[in-house]
Design brief:
Length: 219
């Protein structure tokens, strides 16, 4: 949400104070709006009120920038759930906390997460040159490592008797359909209150755990 809110509030940046993250934020918004193929570096430069030359100071190509947005989108996800991985807590509470952290991250960094989704499709369809395709494959391994955290949480919650499923892959994919949903259908409103965002996250988590047969209460 914060990323989207910034999209109309960029001020003119000098070359020295335009950071890589600002470039990535602008690029993520452009890729989200028009897709990778239809987005040009000129459009990204216009979004951040800078020059294409300044982008080239940090990135050698549009593909390199896209991959950096993808990578940072995944790191944002890792950072969101990592606080819950090791702390002592009941397995089902850990699972719910991780699911909610993911949804909140998706909402807060929606444009970045949209790029991650585009990258998954591009890897599947082989629409990038060989060098970039190889890096997409490496980023897919990063996604697999992230998913493994949730697989572990699901297995622990099933072992504790709070949820049930037969096939871990089906269970995991079903859960991610719920918690990734805001990438597709969520549009932040100007000045939207935090409690409204929390309500969206809570409902996504509720649907996810209900799919797994959870009958307990939600906070």
């Amino acid at each position: 949400m914060a990323t989207a809110a910034r999209s109309t509030r960029y001020r003119r940046q000098s070359d020295t104070d335009l950071s890589r993250m600002e470039i990535m934020e602008g690029a993520a918004l452009c890729f989200e709006a028009r897709g990778y193929a239809a987005t040009s570096l000129d459009e990204i430069a216009a979004r951040i009120t800078s020059t294409k030359g300044r982008i080239y100071h940090h990135y050698g190509s549009k593909a390199e920038l896209f991959l950096d947005v993808y990578r940072n989108g995944m790191m944002m996800n890792f950072q969101a759930v990592e606080p819950f991985l090791e702390v002592p807590m009941p397995a089902i509470e850990r699972l719910k906390a991780m699911l909610k952290a993911h949804v909140r991250c998706v909402i807060r960094t929606k444009a970045f997460q949209n790029v991650v989704g585009q990258g998954v499709d591009m890897l599947r369809h082989g629409t990038m040159p060989a060098n970039e395709h190889a890096e997409l494959a490496q980023l897919a391994e990063l996604r697999d490592a992230y998913s493994e955290h949730f697989s572990t949480a699901l297995e622990q919650a099933r072992a504790s008797g709070d949820i049930t499923y037969t096939n871990i892959k089906i269970a995991l994919n079903s859960v991610f359909m719920c918690i990734n949903g805001p990438i597709v259908w969520f549009t932040p409103r100007q000045g939207q209150a935090d409690h409204e965002i929390e309500a969206v996250a809570d409902e996504c988590v509720l649907y996810a755990v209900r799919l797994l047969g959870y009958t307990g209460t939600m906070p």
